[in-house]
Records
---
Amino acid sequence: MSAVPISWYLTLSAVIFALGVAGFLFRHNIITVFMSIELMLNAVNLSFVTFSYQLKQVNGHLFTFFVMVVAAAEAAVGLAIILTVFKNRSTLNIDDIDSMKN
Amino acid sequence: MDAFIVISLIKIAVVAFVLLTAVAYLQWVERKVIAHIQLRMGPYRVGPHGLLQPLADVIKLITKEDMMPSYVNKPLYLFAPFIAVCMALLSIAVIPFGPTITVFGYQTNMQLTDLNIGVLYILAASSMGVYGIALAGWASNNKYALLGGLRSSAQMISYELPMALAIASPLLVSNTLSLKELVGTQSGNILHWNILHGPFPQIIAFLIFLIAGFAETNRVPFDLPEAENELVAGFHTEYSSMKFASFFMAEYLNMVTVSSMATLLFLGGWEAPWPAAYGSNLIPSAIFLVAGLTALYHAANPARKMDKYTLPVFGIVFLGIAGLFLLPLVQSWLLPLFWFCAKTGVILFFFMWVRATLPRFRYDQLMGFAWKFLFPVAMLNLLVTSFLVAWFS
Amino acid sequence: MDVILFLIFAIIAVVSAINVVVQTHPISSAVSLIGVMGSLAVLYLLLGAEFIAAAQVIVYAGAVMVLFIFVILLLNAGAETKRGRSFMVQLLGVPLLIALLGLLVFFVDRLFPRSVTVHFGGFSGGSAQAVGRALFTTYLLPFEVTSILILIAILGAIVLARKELD
């Protein structure tokens, strides 16, 4: 057997996505939560590229490209926000950043 | 298929051996060059003219006690030098040293592998190299190391941009991402090299690439991450013996990569400056002939005691190499190799020359220079190049 | 060969992804995330997406993650302290997550039969040239819009970073 079923790639993507969701839900550090989002985006990228392979079209690659660009922009702004939050509250724990809550 | 694997393995072994030896000797050359610029002797006690110094250094580094500070983050502390060397070695895989040649009936490239995204591959490998330094700085759990790591990651991110933009403009002229084809588009004579050729000669891009290359390899005048008078030794303060040597090797390997990239992108790779029909194939022989005769002349009037014995040997070796370049059998692969090594060597010499000449930048000057000067100039250069390429094609 | 390569890098990706989630120190998570991105780049190569693989390493692993590590170093973020989680997450988090994963895998299995396979070299339309052509013809407008997005992101980052000075 020399070929990999396409469902394996998609399952891998699903597993990584689920792990990203788990990190997003269970972690308390903002930076780790942010990294979990990146993990989910990566999982989605993998399925885009896999679909692109299946349909023999380049479009999936383009979507991946745009996701990357947006992720880069998001990382720049998000990390700037994290820096500001840390300067103002000197904590990275999401439970402590609750001034909007009542 | 089997022949392909065997040839690939042989090529990998040869390239790795030659490269690592070259890196060891590069350090000897650097010490000699800087010493002579500063009117010193440089290493000369171990072997004739200190030629065995690299060997002595390697033995010293291997046998030194491997210190492991108790407060470091162990996994990352051990991982960092490994990643630095790996990423530095990875880039060599796609660098072509010569054209396709035929050895014992097998056609093979003088290159480990020809990727059609070769340039992107090198950019990727070099961008991953930052982690070795940043993680080493963090895992050492030492304020000087941390500051060194922080500085280097900021510096490398900043200089990657002008570097990528400077790489992009010759790519527009050559219209390929494969390093082998890149050289193919510059064949002929010196006027076809990307630095002089095309609708817009890439001399500005070449200079930006070199300056950014200095910063990427953490060399003087951009060696802020390891500025010894403020940061002890920067990110590798806590490293000793072979782990320290790994960072050292990574720095020199990166120098080799940057120099070969400059050669391939701008200076026509292994192409001779003018066609062999006009005698460019005699240049290597002539250079080695002159070197051999000089050595023999000095052997006749020895300045030092040992010169009586060492210089004749060098003279005869040089004359032998000069003769080798005249053999038609080996000329086909020796000449491209010579031109590639010569061009790379000139740039490496430039690295050393700058190190011996220029003082270090201040940190804010360094960042300001990257963002306020290099980046806009690289951008403008790319813009003008793309307009002219679109206009003339 | 394809299966071996896929399994090696899939296992690296999954183990690193688990590591991202379970490590308490953000820098360990970040290094594991780089591992995920690197192995995904290899999988992209297996799928014939060479340009995307290079972009993945340059943009994601090389630039975005350096930014993350830079911020972690800058804030000298320590290990996460154990804290009581909210009741809902504690009770329903893991079961719901497993349900989500099960659902995804179920649909994947139903929609993509085993006979549809991937082999290296089966799709060669992912070269830099092909991606570039599509980017500057079909996807020109989104491309230009993302450039504006990046410009806004740069401005936003600068404004946010400056604000703390006063």
---
Amino acid sequence: MFRNRNWFNRNLWKPKNVHSLDHLKYLYTILSKNQNVSDGNRGLLVETLRSIAEILIWGDQNDSSVFDFFLEKNMLSFFLKILKQKCGSYVCVQLLQTLNILFENIRNETSLYYLLSNNHVNSIIVHKFDFSDEEVMAYYISFLKTLSLKLNCHTIHFFYNEHTNDFPLYTEAIKFFNHSESMVRIAVRTLTLNVYKVDDKSMLQFIRNKTAAPYFSNLVWFIGNHVLEIDACICKDVNQLSGQTRLSDLIAEHLDHLHYLNDILCLHIEDLNVVLIEHLLKKLLIPMYIMSLIPRNNLIFSEQNEKQSLISTALSLFLLSQVFLIIKERQLVHTLANILLKGESDFIFETEQNLRITNNILINKNEELENELMVYTENSEFLENPLAVFLRKKNSINFDKNESVCHSFATSTYSINITDEEKEQRLAQDTQIQTGSFLQAIFENLHCRENDYSVLFALCLLHAISSNSGIGKSLLDTFIFSSGSEYKTKYSVQLIENLIQITSISCQAGCRVRLLTLELTIALIKKLVLIDGKSILLDEHYAAIIGVKEESTSLLRSFYKNEDIFLDMFEDEYYDMKKRSLNIEWLMMDCNLLLQPTNSPMTGVEFSKRLPCGEVERVRRAIRVFLLIRELVLSLSHETESQLPLTDRNTCISIGTSLDLNNSDLITCTVLSKDGNKTRRFLAMDSNQLILVEPHSRLLGWGVTKLAGFLQDIEVTGDKEESKCLHVIIHHTNTGSAYSAKFLFDDHIRCMAAKQKLIKGRAKARKKKMMQIAKLLDIPVSNQPSSSSLLPYNLFTNRHQPISSLLYSSCKQSQPSKIISNFVYSLKPQYTLNIKIVTDNVSETYKNTPSTSCESSSRVIDNSLNTEEIPLVNLSYKIEENIPPKSDKDETTTLNDGDFLHKINNINVSENSVEDDITDKVWELSSGNFPGGSVVITLERRSGSRWKEEWTIQYCAKFQVVRTSFVFFIELQKQRVVIKFFVKSGVKTAEIIPKLRAVFQDDCQSSTRIYE
Amino acid sequence: MSYAYLFKYIIIGDTGVGKSCLLLQFTDKRFQPVHDLTIGVEFGARMITIDNKQIKLQIWDTAGQEAFRSITRSYYRGAAGALLVYDITRRDTFNHLTTWLEDARQHSNSNMVIMLIAKTAANVEDAFINTAKEIYEKIQEGVFDINNEANGIKIGPQSSPTNPNLPTDGRNKNSSSGCC
């Protein structure tokens, strides 16, 4: 065989077995005879180099003498010799592949050490390959990466030379950290991480002293540049697809950088981290991100480029939240959170002292490396690489030598290249940035103005900060989870009020708050106030949230329609909500969020991240808002959902269930399925489901379920050809899949009966669910004509009979006993005011629950009053806006019943118009004439007994005598309830006032003033 | 070497399923698989022809980098195709496929073609080429934005997408004549 291939040297013989020591010897001879690369032997050399790789690995795995020979003959030196000639990429690539294979596959450690021991590898690393050749570049960087995977405490010394302070593997690789090929960049990052991972003190020292400052500052500089590009990209109109992909690439790239930084920080190399964090904070996070939070006109710029480094506030919120979502390293996130939350000047690194020393070393040693880098930048395609720019900016990269590092936030941010004049300017600037101003700026962004564009990012940032495990608990406790001494709450009152406002705005028709924003708001509220599932929310805030729930109910009620689609959407939204859990990091990778909120589905933005488009989507949105807020309220009140889902699928009949069908309506039929199978079944129904059964094998009259589908989703059509036949499609069976079949009945009559039954069953099942929804929405359903389904809900119980007339009529039939008049009166939907008038001789109970249903208005009155002794309770009732408390007295008017009714209707109108603002109303109730006795006043929140205030005021006989009208005001002020009592007539007021005062002073929740 | 397109692949899968061997097996026919020799590489490239067009495949192994999240993330994003490898003799490597797929779905761009490869199967060749075919089809359909190199696709250096078949230079031994 070898005779056929004797075209190069007749004296050589090629062994038959390619995997043998002899073969290597043969290859060695070829190499030694072809030390000069020429066009003629190029092919031969390539094959030889390839075979060497193969045989060496075979030797490593099978025969150690092979490797010994390779080392003995110092064959690596041949490689180097070949390289040094201009051998062309063809040979270069093969050489690099051979080396790759060699280092990737060698398992014998001794062999590896020998390979590395004579410094040939380092010579190959520093060889100037033709990096413009894509293939050479790829093989070269893979070679470096392969080597980096072999690094450990022992092998590191072959690459890092302590005496010459040389580490070519690392320094050569980082030159490519911004290479245009993404795979090359990734390989460089991998390599750096593999290097940092090696626990070798002197090597790490080298990395820190000689390379950390330039490398990290470059990295940070790049990220900064990238961010400016993102900013520019957002500012431009990026409606075009290309702009969108560009933005999405930029964002993804930025996230890659952040993850890379995080990976470095996670290696916990203290010395490196200090330098990296320093650079990050001073070059990027503070000057670019944090300063961009402050409105531009509040900043004074000492240099033009400071202004240029600012980005839009929304973007800075977005980027900051990314930092907190991705990085958990304590030192960095805590420092950053400290600045953000406190916004003041006390972030000083623990290692400040060390840092200063390091920096000085850095400054001296940088020179060398910079020179090296300079050489490199000059003769490579890399000129755009800011390594060059970095050199120009050299002074600004090194930390200031003269000033002590980080005395204050302001000086540390701006300590670069400071002149005296500038210092003064900065001083002026310092005074402008007040304590907490960044936090205030974040809170400021929680206000929805035109839309919720930056609201979403502000929420995300707060959420990310409050969930970041690297931030000290006490810091969070101070700024997020408490609001200082004023309220003594365990959460920030300002924050929660902002959040509640967002939820409230979401409930307005036509608002521009996206579902995602609402979802995030709710998640943040829960995070703030739920501790071990228990709510620590103050009553006033809880009340506000209940108010929001009413608003969301009211919004959805306006969309409530007795149509199939409404029910389907409602259920669909419910299951969709239950299915998804909120993954904020995942959500925030979507670059679409950085574009102004759109409403067009054609942008490809998913529904929760955009505004609704068209009526159907508005309904969907209203449903989701309602469900989300309902869920929030339930978890705040620590209740379990009892009304949703509308059908509990777990309790439904499933396949295989045995049913007692004695006395049930059963229709025999033959089911013809699509594949032509015929089966005899019995058709049964319950309120929700259509059930096909076959007779039970043992129990008489029982059946075994073979199919169960939801009646609400069936479609039944007759067959034109055959009158005994029905086509049935069930969209949701309890196996989940849709089902379609032909049912053949015994005769036409049975078929008609079945059809009617199914259609009726469908309608009934749907009606039942619509009633359930109506109940959820507080819509009266029973015996109501459909037109009146949208009654004004608060006070609608009094629509037919005003309280006074009810009481009056009840009094007429009453028997002499003790009177207990019990009014339950709705002020705002969430409050119930209960007035119980107790007189000495007659008793009457009247209970009026405002918004349950109309039944209560016709409720039978238990006891009656004695006609002779009835006091005429004359209620006057009035609503005004912005009444100055002092002038209330004069404006009170007494109305008769007809007016009363009229007024109530008006109230509803006026209420709707000022729906979002509950602070401007003063409610006033006045009773003209009282018998003796006492009045018990209870104010409670309607849902649940969480909060209730009750006062009993004894009037005795004096009241009757003086005919004092008793007036009290309930004013809802900024989520606080103030109750004011006015006692009108003068004579006996002196006796009543002390009593009222005594009652109210005991109650810490309400602040009471008594006016005379 | 001239090519109409360059597709970047990554190889993913549990450690020990022989990803790097698969890589060499495909990219370099000169290394014949022998029972007493296993060779793996981290990187390889090969030219193939689809639809009379030269397509260069660059395959990057991601082994050893699992510890670093940033690296995995970037790899996924930078690739047009991923070869998900498992070993049919090891049940666990099959069970982990879902995790790998989830990872891929989370990090990659949605157009990335993922090909499942059972390691002992002999059709390694097909796996690589079919993946390339699928990517190529996607390019034809306009799903991939070929001007965006972040997707792991590059247009050949001397060719524009409208005229990708310029003569190959003489050094290229692997390329079959792809000119029209």
---
Amino acid sequence: MLSILRSIWYTFLHAFHKRETQGYPEKLPYLPPRYRGRIILSRDSDGNERCVACNLCAAVCPVDCIALQAANDENGRRYPEFFRINFSRCIYCGFCEEACPTYAIQLIPDFEMGEYDRQNMVYEKEHLLISGEGKYHGYNFYNVAGVDMGVKGTGKGENEEAPVDLKNLIH
Amino acid sequence: MKFVFIIAGVLISVLTIAAGLIYVERRLLALFQDRLGPNRVGPFGLLQVIADMIKIFFKEDWIPPFADKAVFVMAPGILIATILLTFAVIPFADNFIVLDSNIGLLFFLGNSSLGVYSIVLGGWASNNKYSLLGSIRASAQMLTYEVFMGLSLVGVIMMADSFSLRDIVEAQRGGWFVIPQFVGFVIFFIAGIAETHRTPFDIPEADGELVAGYHSEYSGMKFGMFFVGEYMGVTLISALIATLFFGGWLGPSFLPPAFWFFLKTAFFICMFILIRASLPRPRYDQLMELGWKVLLPLVLLNILITGGVLIYTHSL
């Protein structure tokens, strides 16, 4: 009997609690910086595409929503000829971001992707590519990697020493 | 002419309140559950009522081919008719009453007994196992709670010395009956929840077990009539509690009497919704046990004590 009255009283007190519901379109929710939302392709600090078309994202994707085709530019550097994400399949798991060796593919805090036509959920490379560096500033894969792809000369990279001249006895 | 105005006034206000309660209940339940509730249609979502009405009027009104058609159509009407008839004897203010009957309270009890037919026939005519189970439960529950709903009012009748609701309110000028008849008030409230089969006692509907109980097969406005009938029942019981135990239209004179009546009624409607928000549904046998083993002896004891005290004070 008392417990019934007590639960009625406690329920009444809930009238003065903070609301769990947020008035969404007027009051936007707070999304943390690491929120896994819409996928973008970023550029490095020189403004070049970071993506090297290694296909790791497409391989790790559990729902196979990423499709891309690799190609080589005049310096021999790999880039995606097309890069297509079907967001009507994407489950926003973030595996592609974890797999990416160059920080090219990133998930950003944006979920407002409603469309009237299902075909509009398929994003091509020009929709995915942004002009900035996304979450990781100052990182350029080819500045760290050893291979010369027209970004840096041999031995000019970060954490890299100039190549040893084998014919010079002074070393 | 005045008579027609009173009837129209009562009818319009009761129907408007019953329809508005759909919105009020959703907003209040949201309030108690830390949500916002419907707030999109119009200012504060007030036009939600109109949107709901338009929706339910345009829904397909389907009568199942296996149903007993005449009874199936009649059942929701009985519910609305019995409840609306009962509002005739309720005094909204000193002279704002459709029928100042000297058996007003008996008229209410008789009508609420007739209301059982609506649910029993509705479930029977649906020709559906779940509906029938719901209406069997409803008939047992409502007969049980009818018994001491009537008995819980005997104390009030003895103190007011009248069955007329107007006389009962007048008898409360010295003090509200809720103080000497507190047991009667609590039992009438519990029985009222069971009569309107609202949530702690919504065993006839029990959507977890019986789909929707007696109105499983109803759709469109016929379902809407059961729905509105439930809210009219809530309004009726709240109005009766205000009249019988809380002095009806009596109150300080800076507000009109009818306003006091509506204020008290609104308070008990909110209590109905608060109880719905907080209490779970008991098992069927628990409901019956509570009725026959606890509430019935308690209400008989209440009558005995009230009678004893009245005889003692009269003999002085």
